[in-house]
Amino acid sequence: MIEALRETSSKLIKEEEPNLKLRLLKNSIYPVIPALINETKAIINPSIDLSETSKEIKYLIGKIKTFIPPNEIIVHEERRSYPANPIAVLNASWIVRLEYMDDIYKLLGVSTVEDKFKTRVLMNEHTLKALELIEIHKNLAEGIIRASSPKEK
């Protein structure tokens, strides 16, 4: 796969085109994307549903941006909740840090470097607390299930 990418890149570099960098990116990377997706799916845990994780990440980003701990997914239609996937929490937290921190600073009226640092520390603690709450939620759910299941004789 990498050899095919190098070969395609070297062919395009030899050609003189107006938007060489853009064409190089498009023509060398785009054809490889399906292979990368298949390779990734083969490497990661097959039990992880990427489409479901993606939806969960979007949901959790909304919670983080409004300072609600991202520890649980609430399904209002079914009147139930379940613990968030810790991987989704970490991904959502990073996305917020990379994409939305300026919005959060504005919302909180934070402008100094020191206050921005304190805000990032609080966001880190927020994420860690969410991960702890996920574990508690899972343990409670397992305890309730065990307690309500019929006892063996």
Structural descriptors:
153 residues, mainly alpha, 2 domains, two-stranded antiparallel ribbon, 7 helices, 2 strands
Quick synopsis:
This protein has 153 residues and is mainly α.
Question: Can you give a write-up of this model?
Answer:
The chain is mainly α. It has 2 domains: 2-43, no CATH class; 50-148, no CATH class. The protein is 71% helix and 5% strand. The protein contains 7 helices and 2 strands. The protein has helices at 2-14, 20-29, 33-43, 50-65, 86-99, 101-108, 113-148; strands at residues 72-75, 80-83. It has a two-stranded antiparallel sheet. A hairpin with a 4-residue loop joins strand 1 (72-75) and strand 2 (80-83). Helix 1 packs antiparallel against helix 2 (20-29), helix 4 packs across helix 5 (86-99) and helix 5 runs antiparallel to helix 7 (113-148). The chain is flat and about 65 Å long. 11% of the residues are buried. The mean pLDDT is 80.
**Secondary structure tally, helices:** 7
Instruction: Tell me the helix content.
Output: over 70%
Shape: flat
What summary fits the major beta sheet? 2 strands, antiparallel
Q: Secondary-structure element sequence?
A: HHHHEEHHH
The strand count comes to 2
User: Structural class, judged by helices and strands?
Assistant: mainly alpha
| Poorly predicted regions | none
Q: Structurally, how many domains make up the residues?
A: 2
Query: What would the average pLDDT be, to the nearest integer?
Result: 80
Beta strand %? 5-15%
Q: Report the radius of gyration as a whole number of Å.
A: 22 Å
Distance between the termini: 58 Å
Strand order of the largest sheet: 1-2
